[in-house]
Specification:
Multidrug-efflux Transporter Regulator, Chain: A, Domain 2; two-stranded antiparallel ribbon; 2 domains; alpha+beta; 7 helices; 5 strands; about 50% helix; elongated; about 120 residues
């Protein structure tokens, strides 16, 4: 492996669109795998690990899905529990594909709230 394939905490945070604190948090939790360099002092991440983690956390949160549907997060959880709305677990939270939320809404005649409407509602 070449040095060009390794990224520090700051670069990983930028690539993942999260704070350095959260990168360190998920590293400590064992969710974001790292390597140590410089005699075990510095933490670095391989590009493929950053990409794996980014893929795992992508998608809408329960709050995002609730805002799109104009319902409470509890209602979204109920839809998932009933098997009506597909979801997956990532880092202990439910994640949703936007296409699944849109399909759920369409099947039930729910009008999706677009970002501007959600912010002003």
């Amino acid at each position: 492996m070449t040095e060009a394939q390794l990224f520090g905490v700051r670069a990983a945070a930028k690539m993942l669109n999260m704070s350095e604190y959260m990168v360190r948090h998920w590293t400590r939790k064992g969710e974001l795998h790292h390597e140590r360099v410089d005699g075990g002092v510095a933490i670095v991440y391989r590009l493929d690990e950053i990409q794996r983690f980014a893929e795992m956390i992508k998608g809408l949160t329960k709050v995002d899905a609730a805002e799109m549907l104009g319902v409470s997060p509890g209602a979204v959880g109920m839809y998932v529990h009933r098997g009506e709305l597909p979801a997956r677990k990532a880092l202990g939270e439910l994640r949703f594909d936007e296409a699944d939320v849109r399909k759920f809404a369409e099947e039930r005649g729910i009008q999706i709230l677009v970002v501007e409407e959600r912010k002003s509602a």
